[in-house]
Amino acid sequence: MSNSLMHLLLLPTRLSLWILSLAYYILVYGTAGITTCLVLIRIAWTGFKDPYGTFQWTVRKKPPDCLKDPALGDHAYLKGRSSGLRFHYVTKGDHRKPLMLFLHGFPENWYSWRYQLQEFSYHYHTVALDLRGCGDSDAPDRLEEYSLETLLYDIRDTIDELGHTSCILVGHDWGGMLAWHFALERPDMVQNLIVMNAPHPASWLDAVLRRPSQLLRSGHACFFQLPILPEIVLSLEDFKLVRSLFCGKNLGIRNKSKWLTETQLEGYLYRLSQPGGLTGPLNYFRSLLSNTLYKHQDVGVPCMLIWGEADNVLVEGMSGGTRPYLSPNVLNNSPAFIGSSGGEFIKSGFREAHKGISADLRSLVLHAKISPRTPPDYRFRRASERVPKLRHTANSELLLCGFSVFALKLWQRVGKQ
Fold it and tell me: Is residue 23 within 8 Å of residue 29, measured between CB atoms?
């Protein structure tokens, strides 16, 4: 009787959460459908005007010289203990110094951190990793092998294999999202967190639910959920859309004086042009939906968020929306959030800010308090195991959570009687 009453009282909450999830999926795939129609119209128009130029792309035969520049660091490989995959990375600096681990975004590889590898190698053991499916790292075929917990194991294994117990974790775009999640799950392995243009996972959810226009601005992420078609579209006109992500008017580097040279662009296009080279990076977006609908606890490590204010993909103000998800002691002792007038790829214009940021990082390291190390057999939680967060949610969510607490209290009292 008491169990039946409990299930009955919890039914409105479960039903509301199910409707919320359904609405989210409808928004995502509805946006994907709209984006697909616009993309197909564009392809038909450009194909009609120049069929030969539109439907052609070149597979690069050998890596460009910029990827082999010894001044950028030493190339090496490590084997992931959890996955057995081989990961490529570039390292520079004394391995006895604190580890600074860089995680790239889409559609990049280790090369996007070339300036940071050189600048910070004087004080840290700098390592730029090719994430699984990207660059010269192994690329599994199955989508299930790009789940969030699997990617977090990759980061943990990398830190362990490099001979460190913790690191200063730096991430941009998708690498930034992974950095947030890793700091939430393994604060004992993160001395300090630096994220570029990637909101706290819960801040992203709040922005989508409160401003559905965010999904329209992120139409490419919804479009990437589809199979095969995104790989074809990104390859057209010899990867013209990929090029626009780096040097386009809306998404790329705004300052023309800092635009990538053709050789630097080839540093990214070389691996992406190989057969299946786009599938691995796109699988990060395709695994997005299994992780987005869950909120997380506060970030408990010192952190710095660097944000390009002219970002056309993420809604304005999302950077400030991350503040409620920082522990009060962390928020009070972390450097101020930094806004950049440039676009999303702010790393390429990051050299001028290196000295000031480097000083902030040294300050963070000196004052960091590292929690006791978790046993090495720590298991990352699956998305369904993460506990929803109560603070900084929509009013309807607070009411549902309050009703759930009331129902549980009532059930406990009925059980005692």
Answer: no
